[in-house]
From TrEMBL, chain A:
Signal peptide: none annotated. It comes from the Bacteria. Gene3D superfamilies: Urease accessory protein UreF. Its main location: cytoplasm. Belongs to the UreF family. PANTHER family: UREASE ACCESSORY PROTEIN F. The keyword Hydrolase does not apply. Transmembrane segments: none annotated. The lineage of its organism: Bacteria, Pseudomonadati, Verrucomicrobiota, Opitutia, Puniceicoccales. UreD, UreF and UreG form a complex that acts as a GTP-hydrolysis-dependent molecular chaperone, activating the urease apoprotein by helping to assemble the nickel containing metallocenter of UreC. The UreE protein probably delivers the nickel. The keyword Chaperone applies. Keywords: Chaperone, Cytoplasm, Nickel insertion. It is found in: Cytoplasm. This is Urease accessory protein UreF.
Length: 229, 292
């Protein structure tokens, strides 16, 4: 059994890995402020009606496209995909959350485990050819750590579902056990979401999430807020 | 140039009824002439598209697009190419809703449109509702290029069925792809394939709260807008019981996305009209009377 990639993946997806994700709610804060997400059940509905769709239709397909481009060391394609990832976000806060975490992840991983691909990404960033967004760096990192595609998609999915559960602790009356109950229910669907994402092609890869877009856009103007996004 | 230009009336061989379908187009160029008036220096159109006589209000040329058929049927396609030349100013309006009708499972209707706004040019595209009726499938592809110094107010208004007749989210598939480039940089890329059968409509139908199915997206581009402007605060305050509204700056250029979800078409349109009025005031232009 070759599991050399596993400890590295666990390290880079652990909340201890400092990329600042704890500072973002990714639009959830505004939906809590409006009262639409207010308890365990509505948090699970939020995950199912928004986060699942975003994973299946947008994030996992783009993670797959970028992972494949990184495997081929096709930096032109990586730059194109990174540009599309940024342009697909109609909210400045969500775009900045993605770029801030991508840049921090790249800075850290390239110090901890320098490789020619990370060096290239840093050069491309310096030349303003790539942002790079969080998905882009995560894909490149897992190619370099030799994580197979399936676990790469699964670990991204886990983080996408765990992050709002973590944020919910500060936003609604839910408690640690409540948040873990929601997360336990959601992670059972990860395999189904990944399988559905595999048939999504680049031409229409994207999620239609008007409720989230508006919530995130309104968060920018909110009078008070706990999270950056 | 799209192949639609060379297509004529054809027969959809795959349907048992062998229904004829139409491949229409509109190719138009708006130019400012020597007298300062905006005119259509090029106009070519073909069924199902018809256009009104352009109306010049002294600052803005209004062109109404009409589909004399009741909407788009299986196999129908339309190709639109709209060019706004330097310092020209066009408002493109579609005064009646465009319905995408019920069709066979393998069929779809398609709409492909490109818009180019040159430096100093202005385009408003303000269609009525696109209505995705039960068992319809529709693909829309939009490419917008705005040169530095050009201005844009571009609306998409979409209803997921004939809501008043209790037909909601019963369409088969809606594939939409829109790109906005400002000064040759990608500012927005929206792509999605919504299929209520597989649940990809769940944010639109809003499982978290009250239904607000009337969706409007507005793209705004102008160097006269700035992120710090009070304009955005006033947009934020337009939210009401019947309409959610948000706005944010896009990835590149002086471009913004504004989205509205309305519980009914009147509430959504009311919010849109307020945005339109304030936008024109902000960029110091005179809007066209849409004559609807």
């Amino acid at each position: 059994m070759n599991l050399t990639w596993l400890p590295h993946m666990l390290q880079t997806t652990d909340p201890l890995f400092p990329i600042g994700s704890y500072a973002h709610s990714y639009g959830l804060e505004e939906l809590c402020a409006s009262g639409e997400v207010h308890d365990q059940d509505s948090l699970l509905t939020y995950l199912k009606s928004i986060v699942y769709i975003n994973l299946q239709e947008f994030e996992l397909p783009y993670l797959r496209f970028t992972y494949e481009a990184a495997q081929e060391a096709d930096t032109t394609k990586i730059c194109e995909l990174d540009e599309e990832i940024g342009a697909s976000k109609p909210s400045k806060e969500l775009r900045q959350a993605s770029s801030a975490q991508g840049q921090q992840r790249l800075r850290l991983i390239s110090k901890l485990r320098p490789t020619p691909l990370f060096e290239q990404l840093l050069e491309l960033k310096k030349a303003k050819r790539v942002t790079p967004h969080h998905l882009t760096v995560f894909a490149a990192e897992n190619v370099e750590l030799q994580t197979p595609l399936g676990p790469t998609l699964a670990s991204w999915s886990y983080q996408a579902l765990a992050a709002p559960c973590a944020a919910s602790l500060k936003l609604i009356r839910i408690g640690q056990e409540g948040a873990q109950t929601v997360l336990t229910s959601a992670i059972q669907d990860i395999e189904t979401i990944i399988n559905a994402s595999l048939s999504i092609e680049r031409e229409f890869a994207g999620a239609f999430l008007p409720t989230l877009d508006i919530a995130s856009q309104r968060h920018e103007q909110a009078f008070s807020r706990l999270f950056i996004s | 140039m799209s192949t639609a230009r060379t297509r004529t009336l054809k027969t959809l061989a795959s349907t048992s009824s062998a229904r004829p379908y139409v491949a229409g187009h509109l190719y138009a160029t708006c130019t400012r002439d020597d007298s300062g008036k905006c005119i259509l220096s090029r106009k070519e159109f073909k069924t199902p598209i018809h256009i009104s006589k352009p109306y010049w209000n002294g600052s803005n040329l209004l062109l109404n697009l009409m589909c004399p058929t009741a909407g788009m049927l299986a196999g129908d396609s339309v190709d639109l190419e709209i060019e706004i030349e330097e310092d020209a100013c066009l408002t493109l309006s579609n005064p009646s809703s465009m319905r995408i009708h019920k069709m066979d499972p393998e069929s779809e209707a398609t709409w492909t449109q490109t818009f180019h706004v040159a430096k100093g040019g202005f385009l408003e595209s303000n269609p009525e509702w696109l209505i995705l009726q039960g068992e319809s499938a529709f693909t829309q592809k939009t490419g917008i290029r705005v040169e530095k110094g050009g201005e844009l107010f571009f609306i998409e208004a979409i209803a997921p069925g004939r809501i008043a007749h209790q037909e909601s989210f019963l369409f088969r598939r809606f594939s939409n792809r829109l790109s906005l480039r400002y000064d040759n940089e990608l500012s927005l890329l929206e792509k999605h394939r919504v299929q209520p059968e597989n649940g990809t409509h769940s944010s639109w139908s809003n499982e978290l709260g009250d239904a607000c199915p009337f969706y409007i997206s507005v793209l705004l581009a102008s160097e006269k807008l700035s992120d710090s402007s009070d304009f955005w605060k006033s947009i934020y305050e337009l939210q009401s019981d019947g309409a959610r509204i948000g706005a944010s700056k896009l990835a590149k250029g002086p471009c913004w996305s504004l989205k509205i979800l309305g519980s009914d078409p009147i509430a959504a349109r009311r919010a849109l009209n307020a945005v339109r009025e304030q936008f024109y005031r902000e960029i110091d232009r005179r809007p066209a009377d849409l004559r609807r």
